[in-house]
Amino acid sequence: xxxxxxxxxxxxxxxxxxxLPLAFEQIARIGARYVEIAYIEGYIDPFTEExxxxxxxxxxxxxxxxxxxxxxxxxxxxxxxxxxxxEIFQRRMEFARELGAAVVISNAAPPSRxxxxxxxxxxxxxxxxxxxxTIALENPGDGRENLLDTGVEGARLIERLGLPNVGLNYDFxxxxxxxxxxxxxxxxxxxxxxxTVHLHIKDVAADGRGWYFxxxxxxxxxxxxxxxxxxxxxxxxxxxxxxxxxxxxxxxPRRGADPVAVERILEVLAGxxxxxxxxxxx
Length: 282
Prior knowledge:
Elements (H helix, E strand, L loop, with lengths): L7 E4 L8 H11 L3 E5 L15 H14 L2 E6 L9 H14 L4 E4 L7 H18 L2 E5 L12 H11 L4 E6 H7 L6 H8 L3 E6 L1 E5 L2 E5 L8 H4 L10 E3 L5 E3 L5 E3 L6 H20 L1
Parallel strand pairs: 1-2, 1-10, 2-3, 3-4, 4-5, 5-6, 6-7, 7-10
Antiparallel strand pairs: 8-9, 9-11, 11-12
Helix pairs in contact: 1-2, 2-3, 3-4, 5-7
């Protein structure tokens, strides 16, 4: 079981194509106590801004409570340099807070729009502080140049920002596709740890069509060494396993035409959950 110092969540992204209440029920069946709710454009079924209302958040919170779950992290990935993004992201933060989340995860921005990103993130961080939230910027996996392509660059960016409630969400699996396997997460994550506030655990394997996602411990990432790191065991961790998704050789994401069978999702999540708990426990 998770210790008092370790939060181990399961992301709803694995249940792309299914309603969130069903995802909550199935995640609880595995034995998890925490869930990361994911609203990521292009990675799950399409949604509109009308989703992010107080009334819907309260309904989802009841669904969570009924399933015996708590929401610690909320995925709201956006380009934080985009026009109007401050107001859009604020809605997501308020929605996340209604659900009880403490961490809201997002992308950063392309280097070409660094100036606008810096201005936006200061405003976002100020509102997050009012809400009691931490913003976790994530290293991407899509192969497109970003302000934090790797853990090293992410650490430098957080140092530059100097905002106490903005840190990193380090995603081990993203590094593989984003950097075309030129950078290994087993080494890169160590450079980011001092600025990391949350971790995404995902495992990947390659074939002739790019990369696909596997049960944790059965892909190409050496999680036995990663999860034995004492500093990792003090951070909130989320299993983010987008089984319907694969990455093309460029890193670009592609969703499958149909949702993955619930039985298959449960098999992968249960194996991943048990493996991760075992490794974290030492």
